[in-house]
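Appendix C: a fully annotated inverse folding record. The material below is reproduced so that readers can follow the format used throughout the book. The structure is listed first as tokens, followed by the designed sequence.
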């Protein structure tokens, strides 16, 4: 399948006092139309920075050191700001993790949706069309909701409105950054159910960034596991979850509360701490925390070992 979004050898760093924090390091990924790609890893691994780079909405302190982000063959990172704005919303859209701060508190939901779609095509900003999209994402009494302010909606409803805003222009790629993190368990289940429905009704590609392993297992076709700014393993969800090849992936899955024996009286953790990415360690970044480390792991950076539809960044390769 032809990739609708391709990230090639991307590196992103943040300017810091005394150096630069290398948040994303030589990442390459691709996703085809109709596919759902999950990006998972612990906090601080670089997954949200990677998601922001996919739509080129990086903070002002961020600098792209190398690489490209190609949307239908066009490198977003090389376009003029006006050309990038023309693509955002129409070709690629993003759902941010905090549904409260995603909206202007002094404008109604209808005004904000109309402004969003009107920036691309004013003829599409009709109230009936906006209400139809709200209805599609499960907002009850959608026409009345257009006249409400964000604070009048629950967290789950605000997240649904954010998803509706992202879908209004029927983009080729929808990126969801931690779409369930700020919600309670009930609302989280509803948003997962909504994304499950979108898999069959949405014609584009979906990228879901999350630390929630259950969300990945429930929604995604493929998953990329990130650690210290790198993709250390990538492959089909079933293969990664049932036969993880990288030691970090194994350790991460072992810490999932869903697989922990409640009678054990303990919650597994990964020993050690994340490396300092202002001065990344030589060799494998996970080596200081890895129980299966070899002497070579302290030396050269491991090469990416391809497999049957998957890859692993490890000196041991696919075991």
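Designed amino acids, in order:
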């Amino acid at each position: 399948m032809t990739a609708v979004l391709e990230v090639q050898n991307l590196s992103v760093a943040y300017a810091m006092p005394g150096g630069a924090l290398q948040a994303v390091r030589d990442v390459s990924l691709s996703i085809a139309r109709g596919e759902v790609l999950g990006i998972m890893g612990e906090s601080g691994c670089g997954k949200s920075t990677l998601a922001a780079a996919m739509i080129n909405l990086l903070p002002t302190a961020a600098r792209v050191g190398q690489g490209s982000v190609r949307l239908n063959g066009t490198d977003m990172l090389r376009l003029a700001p006006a050309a990038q704005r023309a693509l955002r919303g129409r070709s690629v859209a993003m759902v941010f993790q905090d549904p409260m701060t995603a909206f202007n508190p002094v404008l109604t939901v209808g005004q904000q949706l109309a402004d969003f779609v009107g920036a691309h095509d004013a003829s599409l900003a009709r109230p009936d069309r906006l209400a139809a999209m709200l209805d599609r994402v499960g907002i009850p009494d959608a026409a009345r909701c257009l006249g409400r302010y964000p604070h009048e909606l629950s967290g789950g409803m605000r997240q649904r409105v954010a998803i509706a805003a992202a879908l209004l222009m029927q983009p080729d790629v929808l990126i969801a950054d931690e779409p369930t993190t700020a919600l309670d368990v009930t609302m989280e289940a509803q948003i997962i159910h909504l994304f499950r429905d979108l898999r069959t009704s949405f014609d584009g590609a979906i990228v879901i960034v999350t630390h929630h392993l259950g969300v990945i297992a429930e929604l995604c076709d493929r998953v990329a596991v990130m650690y210290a700014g790198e993709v250390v393993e990538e492959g089909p969800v079933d293969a990664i979850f049932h036969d993880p090849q990288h030691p970090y992936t194994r350790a991460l899955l072992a810490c999932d509360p869903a697989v922990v024996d409640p009678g054990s009286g303990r919650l597994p953790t990964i020993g050690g701490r994340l490396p300092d990415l202002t001065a990344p360690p030589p060799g494998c970044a996970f080596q200081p925390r890895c129980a299966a480390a070899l002497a070579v792991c302290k030396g050269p950076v491991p090469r990416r070992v391809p497999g049957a539809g998957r890859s692993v960044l490890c000196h041991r390769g696919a075991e």
